[in-house]
Here is the input.
Amino acid sequence: MCLTMLDFTSPASPIEIKRIHQLFLESLNQDRICYTPHCPYTAINSHVVQKKRVLSQIASNGKFRELRWPDGTLPHRFSSAGINKTDVLSFPGFCGNEGNDCDRKIFSPIEPTKPNETIDFLSYSNQILFSYRATICELHKMDSWISTYHKIISDNTFSKPTRRYYKQHALPEFKKNRRSTLYLKRILESEMKQPSVPNRFTFHVASLPFIEVVGSGVFGAATSLEFIDSKKSTGAAFIHAIPENNFTTLIIGYDNGVKEIEGIPIKSLDKALSDKKMLATVIFTIFIKRIETWGISEKFYQELHATGLDEEILQLIEFYLPVARKSQPFFFDVLGLLEDRKKALLNTDGQDARESFISLVRNEPH
Here is the structure.
């Protein structure tokens, strides 16, 4: 849901863009107060998915490939990351045992610690917890951008057009987005205390044979202020891909006013998710277009890399960055493409055909 910090109308120069990225990374890593209401303690780094039971499932020698966003020097990339590092798929969201221990108290139902304990993915309260944590992760990124924009505006070493742009356009837009996300946060907190009847959100759960991908995010939430303090739908949707015990569980949820998910009508969603190939397609399509916090195993990365699909995924992420393009219909059949590429490699003595990207972004059959 959160836009990358630079849109495509910013007047910032390449040198300024690099500085802005650096300022954002500083804001992203600065101490934050716990996002639990009325908690005064400093937040610790919280993983968007559990490290021991989930990230470890796709790690090889303690490492996997995390999607990294541009940092002013390097573009989008799948960067090798150790799951024991505190900044891997994590954010400072909730306090630890030196405070009120909000992180453990809130999320213990979806973070079992005993080997024989399991997560009930069909539990509405657990589905809300996964979605709440993804929403707080999004809110933290928004707070980091807003802090960055304030620094730009007050720094006279940035050009006047750049400072004026972030003051008059970028900052007001992000503040509006933040108010919308805070509204969603309050609704989820209300559901955590006392679930509405009927439930405010609907979730679909499906599983497929192990695909070594993990991620969690919120997308599609409305930014209009008409939704604040009203009973209208926020338009929010959630996706959680959780590899565990030789299966990957997909949870897709949405506020009940949502009519479709990436072009799939809500009434057809269960049917679409019953097809295992389509299930993988839905995961990667939403991750590519909408989600920033996800990663894949080293083994799966190497398969994608050998067939050129890793670079095409990164190009697609760049292609769909502008908000105007996100509504364009698009499905990424990662498993079908991977199978076709492997066959092509065998049939051409290693000649790797990479024409699918052009047809994909044009929505032509491949």
